[in-house]
Amino acid sequence: MDYDLIIRNGLIVDGSGKPAFSGDVGVRDGKIVAVGTVDGDAANEIDAGGKLVTPGFVDIHTHFDGQATWENRMAPSSNHGVTTVLMGNCGVGFAPCRPHQRDMLVKLMEGVEDIPEVVMVDGLPWNWETFPDYLNALEQRELDVDVATQVPHSAVRIFVMGERAARHEPPTADDLAQMRALVKEAIEAGAFGVTTSRNIMHRTRAGELAPSLYSEFDELCALMDGLVEAKAGVFQMIPAPANDAEEEFALLRGLAEHGKRPVSFTLLDVPGQPGAGWRSMLRGLEKARQDGLQMRGQVAPRPVGMFYGLDLSLHPFSSHPSYKSIAGLPLAERVAKMRDPEFRAQLLSETPEDSNPVTLTLINAFRATNEWEDGRPNYEPNRANSMEARAQAAGQSVEEFAYDRLLQDEGRRMFYLPAANYTEGNLSAVREMLGHPDTVMALADGGAHYGLICDSSFPTYYLQRWARDAAENERIDLPLAVAELTSKTAATVGLTDRGLIAPGMKADLNVIDFDALQLRVPEIVYDLPAGGKRMLQKVDGITATIVNGKVTYRNGEPTGELPGRLVRRTAMELAA
Predict the structure, then answer these.
(1) What is the pLDDT of residue 243?
(2) Distance (Å) of CA 166 to CA 204, 205, 384
(3) Residue 289 confidence (pLDDT) above 60
């Protein structure tokens, strides 16, 4: 056979941003070897007539750090055409880690990323201690996507400082030297960067702040110095969203100026931030580019939204004392108990109790949620249909109204809160951030927030909402949209061998029925270690996904092929 795989007759959107063209793609030994008119035979052929052929999507903001060690499929991201994921974001992860510190990292990940402790205790093999050890453990895994890593600040801080890190004590000069050395070691072993968080919502479930928060500039510079000494890597940060945006950007710019390494950060339209903070950050990015600094904002294509429900992590009564007494029961038994008039009266007489103020804030935010009742996702809800507005119209309190709505569909009804990127009740701010030369579409958070957020479908949504269904004056040209998901994300973090359909590039590809592309409503499944639950969101219209030349999904169903492997940054340099 001349080829292992030929994709024929497709409309090739090659990831460069250039106009699409009709043609074939020939694949051999995991590489693209021919593009255009491809003659010859192949062991496997896909007829892409009437469909798009794109590079595989590169998702640079995920949290599969644990899932990649216990599971072969990086769902739900791999269901959406994603073929490479970058883990270790937001300053949290599982390496480096001494044996007696494992519980600290587990509790931190449970609170920050909503991964139940029992899932991690049951699932994590802990066959590592140093970050190079962790990479070696990942190297043994067979997956449905390629995985790349970053070294997380909180894990580094705990590794060096132990309990002093959790108490937010300032580091000594020796502590800083050790942190710098650990970052350098991780980058030289193959990590793509270092990450941190200043987001005050990042806490353990008990409410303790993540160790990375409130770190002084000299500590952040020590992390940056690790990149400088390794002569590679990106510095990723979640700024403090409630702070003045210009002050936060000045900190980010200071890091870029200090180390002259690329800086990437979360950029959102955040309610309560003084002024239109996101817009001032865009101006700051433009000035930084003019000054020769490499800075890029990671933006989301829709509201960063949370789901509530009786079978999810949060709902209006999840922290009420009476509900806590039945929280461990199967859903059907909880629903039956909640239908008891006496239990209803008792629960409605109570107020939520929790040591974590973020939990209480999120519970209170339920009043702004909307129901998804028609079986189709609605990421742009009308605020006139919020729980609070509907309760007022019904002459009930939000709690009374919510109680009865939660019991719909035998307790399976889901409620959606557009938490960020929806300050004005529309996506105008999102559109302004998308496609900006100094931003990149990211923030899908795959592998995290199992019972709260389901944003792994960002790539599908982005194509569907902005490249196909948007009004003409706001539509993003398809070639530019595909580049945003492929070559631009890959270039942001230094993945130089993917993101383009061109000879010599990795054979990571998607075949997409663009007209049929349609997201479904997330489903709750119990397939994590220890029977843990998560939300999965399926999509119609992705005909095939190919990783390293192997077809991993056909029409949304896994083929059983697991060609994905660990990607080391050092391998990128050798390939170059």
Answers:
(1) 75
(2) 11, 14, 43
(3) yes
- Would the CA dihedral through 169, 173, 178, 180 be positive or negative? positive
Q: Which residue has the tokens 């510079």?
A: 221
Length of the chain counted residue by residue: 576
Cβ neighbors of 206 (< 8 A, separation 6 or more) are 107, 111, 355, 356
426 pLDDT exceeds 60?
yes
Residue pair 284/249 in contact by the 8 Å Cβ criterion? yes
Q: CA-to-CA distance for 459 and 106, rounded, in angstroms?
A: 29
Q: Residue 209: beta bridge partners?
A: 203
d(C-alpha 460, C-alpha 538), whole Å: 10
Give the Cα separation of 521 and 187 in Å (integer): 39
Q: Who's near 308: CB < 8 A, 6+ residues apart?
A: 314, 315, 316, 366, 369, 414, 415, 417
**Contacts for 521 with CB less than 8 Å, ≥ 6 apart:** 372, 375, 376, 377, 414, 537
Helix 153-161, helix 102-113: angle, nearest 10: 150
Question: In the prediction, which pLDDT does 1 show?
Answer: 72
pLDDT in tens, 130-155: 999 999 999 999 999 999 999 999 99
What is 475-541 written as a DSSP string?
A: PPPHHHHHHHHTHHHHHHHT-TT-SS-STTSB--EEEE-GGG-EEPPPEEE--SGGG--EEE--EE-
Residue indicated by tokens 């974590």: 356
Question: Per residue in 188-210, pLDDT tens?
Answer: 999 999 999 998 778 887 888 89
Q: Residue 236 in 3-state DSSP?
A: strand
Amino acid at 119: V
**Residues 38-86: pLDDT tens digits?**
999 999 999 999 999 999 999 999 999 999 999 999 999 999 999 999 9
Instruction: Kindly provide the b/e burial profile for residues 246-262, where b requires at least 16 CB atoms within 10 angstroms of the residue's own CB.
Output: eebbebbbebbebbebb
Residue 284 CA to chain centroid, in angstroms?
A: 24
What residue type is assigned to position 509 of the chain? Answer: L
Q: What is the mean pLDDT of residues 234-243?
A: 89
Q: Are 235 and 194 in contact (CB under 8 A)?
A: yes
Taking only Cα atoms into account, the Rg of the chain, rounded to an integer number of angstroms, comes to 23
pLDDT for residue 204: 83
Distance separating alpha carbons of residues 73 and 536, to the nearest angstrom: 12
The pTM assigned to this predicted structure is 0.95
Burial of 264 (0-12, 13-18, 19+ CB in 10 A): buried
**In contact, 210 and 108? CB cutoff 8 Å:** yes
Average pLDDT score over residue span 479-503: 98
Nearest 5 degrees, angle CA 392-CA 394-CA 398? Answer: 50
C-alpha 250/C-alpha 564 separation (Å) is 39
